[in-house]
Design goal:
The protein is built from 9 helices and 29 strands. The strands form 5 sheets. An 8-stranded antiparallel sheet has the order 7-6-13-12-23-22-29-28. Strands 8-9-10-11-24-25-26-27 form an 8-stranded antiparallel sheet. It has a 6-stranded antiparallel sheet with strand order 2-3-4-5-1-14. The N terminus and C terminus are likely disordered.
């Protein structure tokens, strides 16, 4: 009944203007019986001799049943203009309806039937030579040409300690996991005893579900290189990919596309000006702070936020009013899809005069803005704070460089000398990272980004061990310029000079999911 009450408020308007689209929805056969609970006649769907509309989702000989008449009953709608067809052959509902109706159908099914669980995968790859991979952007894909030498996968549970291993404990993973807004967050400890791929890794991982978190481990001999990939995908209770329970006619997953758009879209992008209204693309979900439930106290008749409210305590829900104006830019749009953010933006200092507005079209994550130019700039500043995105990882790459003579800083920056060893740590600013490579190379470090976002403050340990005796390497702190190699430690060995070089990189949130849909 809770779903009915929510949807009856959201969906009272007659759906008129949006373009009809077709999608299919996978349900277990027993799930279909859930619909029958809403009907005293134990409705099983009216059998059809042929499909009511053309679609590649139908084939000749399909056994089809029409469930369209049940939609208004289940959702509390006065009217449903569309078709909902059960295709027994593929065990999927096929619905032809407006975009907003599909959104509501997905919402009801996820509320009542479709369950999801996170499946975590940790993979180890070996490359004969170090590939071209800079690691400067979040979720950068693994280079091609690597050999998969170890992999482990398991169904995880939030808040529970996860410890898994392969037979013989060649690969062992311990993790403390959390999930928020489609993101995987947690501490990973990975130990690999795979031949010629021995390493250990401990760091904090912050990634998006469906996108890889790639970390280079390094190269013990300057030739063969190791990489580790952490991935997370949602799966259904039957083991099928969760994203695939909703598909378009051409087999694409709107859920996956939406998630990847959210992952990459932490920037507010100007799209166009239409009828004197500026239209922006905004990240999905990042405007929740404008509409979030809060504890409100009333002073002089005005609601104010209570900063001392206990976590989870909600005394009053902040309203999310629908846009009630008649500006022609919204002609043909479903009114329940338009959220008026004007009042919330006024609370954030944005001046909004009569006839002006800030309206979010939630289904497309588009913001319609009619304001004076100066107030547009203030609005964009507020959105920048709201859409800051996840914290940026830091990559610390230590390389041992051999040369005929002592290297200058300019020669180091130009990449001169022979790289004979490399070890890489990747983690979050202010958090410790620890990596060992082989049996004799260890990095323990943490780094902070300077206020100018151009310098990194790095402290920690770089240690080479030979026959259980530590060789002098690096145990100190230093400042390095973002992305610029700098000398850490150098010494002369016979006729050769050996220099440890550190390149610290703040990983950027740009182009991370391009081409990965």
């Amino acid at each position: 009944m809770k779903v009915l009450l929510i949807l009856s408020v959201i969906c009272q308007a007659v759906l008129l203007a949006d373009e009809m689209v077709v999608r299919s929805y996978a349900l277990e056969p027993e799930d279909v019986s859930w619909f029958r609970e809403w009907n005293e006649e134990a409705w099983t769907g009216r059998e059809l001799a042929k499909a009511p509309f053309e679609s590649p989702l139908f084939q000749e000989g399909d056994k089809l049943r029409d469930w369209s008449r049940e939609v208004p009953k289940i959702w509390g709608l006065e009217k449903f203009e569309g078709e909902l067809i059960w295709n027994e052959r593929v065990e999927r509902f096929v619905m032809r309806a407006e975009e907003s109706v599909h959104d509501k159908f997905q919402e009801v099914m996820e509320e009542q039937l479709v369950q999801k669980m996170p499946q975590i995968t940790v993979s180890v790859y070996s490359f004969e030579n170090r590939p071209e991979w800079r690691g400067e952007t979040i979720w950068e894909m693994l280079p091609e040409g690597g050999e998969l030498v170890g992999e482990i996968s398991w169904l995880a549970f939030e808040g529970e300690g996860n410890r898994v291993s392969t037979p013989g404990k060649k690969l062992v993973v311990e993790a403390e996991l959390g999930f928020s807004e489609g993101r995987l967050e947690g501490t990973f400890q990975v130990k690999s005893r795979i031949k010629e791929a021995e390493f250990s890794f401990k760091s904090f991982v912050d990634s998006a579900v469906g996108l890889p978190w790639v970390s280079e481990i390094g190269s013990g001999d300057g030739k063969r290189s190791l990489f580790m990939v952490v991935g997370c995908e949602w799966v259904r209770s039957n083991g099928a990919a969760y994203d695939d329970w909703v598909l378009t006619e051409d087999g694409r997953s709107p859920l996956r596309d939406m998630r990847l758009d959210h992952a990459e879209g932490y920037e507010v992008k100007f799209l166009r000006t239409e009828k004197e209204v500026r239209v922006y693309r905004v990240p999905r979900g990042t405007l929740d702070w404008l509409r979030r439930p809060v504890v409100l106290v009333h002073e002089n008749g005005e609601p104010q936020e209570d900063p001392f409210a206990a976590d989870g305590e909600v005394a009053e829900i902040r309203p999310s009013p629908k846009y009630e104006g008649d500006h022609p830019v919204f002609k043909g749009m479903e009114r329940s899809d338009l959220v008026d953010l004007s009042e919330r933006m006024r609370e954030n200092g944005v001046k909004i005069d009569e006839g002006q507005f800030v309206v979010l079209r939630s289904s497309t994550s588009q913001l319609y803005v009619r304001l004076d130019p100066a107030d547009v700039e203030l609005l964009l500043g507020c959105l920048k704070v709201a859409c800051a995105g996840p914290p940026q990882p830091i990559l610390l790459a230590f390389e041992l460089v051999e040369s005929e003579g002592q290297l200058t800083q300019e020669q180091i920056r130009n990449g001169e000398g022979k790289r004979i060893r490399r070890i890489v740590g990747k983690g979050m600013a202010g958090a410790s990272m620890e990596v060992t490579l082989g049996k004799d190379l260890l990095v323990e470090a943490e780094a902070m980004v300077d206020g100018d976002e151009d310098l990194l403050q790095v402290s920690g340990l770089l240690s080479e061990v030979k026959k259980k005796r530590e060789k002098a390497s690096f145990r100190s702190a230093l400042m390095v310029k973002d992305g610029v190699p700098g000398m850490v430690h150098e010494g002369r060995f016979g006729e050769k000079w050996r220099t440890w070089v550190l390149t610290g990189t703040v990983v950027k949130l740009v182009n991370e999911s391009e081409g990965k849909k």
